[in-house]
């Protein structure tokens, strides 16, 4: 799981540097998180939480697809930012869950074949 977290943490660091000049306090305040919590994620001590993903996407206007998967447009523009972000997050969460189900099914099949 840590392999999938590292790219998200890198994008988080990129946002921190590019939009906030590396100022973790300002960044933390903008996404509604404590500075120590954000620091732990950026330093790799903790995985990126759903709360950070929500803050970056909903409050800063980043695309959930870009932030989580590194695909698509970086920012969502226009008046429907919140709706587009929520739909994108739902689609991404669906894909993550679908992937987990497929892996579980493959493991079950392998287990059944061992008999």
Automatic annotation (TrEMBL):
Pfam families per the UniProt record, alphabetical: HTH_3
Coiled coil regions in record: 87-114
UniProt xrefs under CDD domains: HTH_XRE (cd00093)
Keyword Coiled coil among UniProt keywords: yes
Residue ranges annotated for the HTH cro/C1-type domain, each copy included: 24-67
One term of GO molecular function: DNA binding
Keywords (A to Z) from UniProt: Coiled coil
Protein name: HTH cro/C1-type domain-containing protein
């Amino acid at each position: 799981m840590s392999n999938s977290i590292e790219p998200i943490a890198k994008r988080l660091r990129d946002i921190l540097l590019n939009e906030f000049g590396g100022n973790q306090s300002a960044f933390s305040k903008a996404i509604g998180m404590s500075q120590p919590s954000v620091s732990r994620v950026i330093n790799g001590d903790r995985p990126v939480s759903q709360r950070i993903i929500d803050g970056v996407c909903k409050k800063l206007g980043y695309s959930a697809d870009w932030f989580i998967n590194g695909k698509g447009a970086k920012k969502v523009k226009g008046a429907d930012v919140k709706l587009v972000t929520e739909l994108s997050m739902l689609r991404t969460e669906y894909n993550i869950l679908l992937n987990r189900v497929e892996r579980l099914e493959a493991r079950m099949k392998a287990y059944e074949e061992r008999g």
